[in-house]
């Protein structure tokens, strides 16, 4: 943004043409010039603002870096937990398969025992 400085000579002449006395015109131009200079941003002001923004950006970068590292640590832990859960599920599947096999053997044994008892009961009844 370009800051336009007031042309004091033109302002003085314009006030004279408007019928303002030389002393009044001179005082008015001086007041307006001082107001403009007081409100103008100096290079130092802009540098200070730039340093503040740079500092804020660096602080934000440090915070984000810390947050990213924390998130990475948490995700690593979650991945490790998931891997442990997968191993547990695999073990449970193996245990269930073993139980199924055991149940088949128990069924067979019960069928043999039942058959033997039925045969013994029939033999006892008919003898």
Helix content class: over 70%
Number of domains as seen in the coordinates = 2
Number of helical stretches of at least 4 residues: 3
Distance between the termini: 121 Å
Mean pLDDT, nearest integer?
87
Using only C-alpha atoms, the radius of gyration works out to 48 Å
Q: Order of helices and strands, N to C? A: HHH
Fraction of residues in β-strands: under 5%
Largest sheet: none
Count of strand segments: 0
How would you sum up the global shape?
rod-shaped
Secondary structure category: mainly alpha
> Stretches where pLDDT falls below 50 for ≥5 residues?
none
Helix and strand layout, with pairings?
Layout: H1 8-17, H2 22-39, H3 43-126
What's the short story on this structure?
The protein has helices at 8-17, 22-39, 43-126.
Structural notes for this entry:
This protein is rod-shaped. It is built from three helices and no strands. The chain is mostly helical and 127 residues long. 1% of the residues are buried. The protein has two domains: 7-40; 41-126. Helix 1 (8-17) runs antiparallel to helix 2.
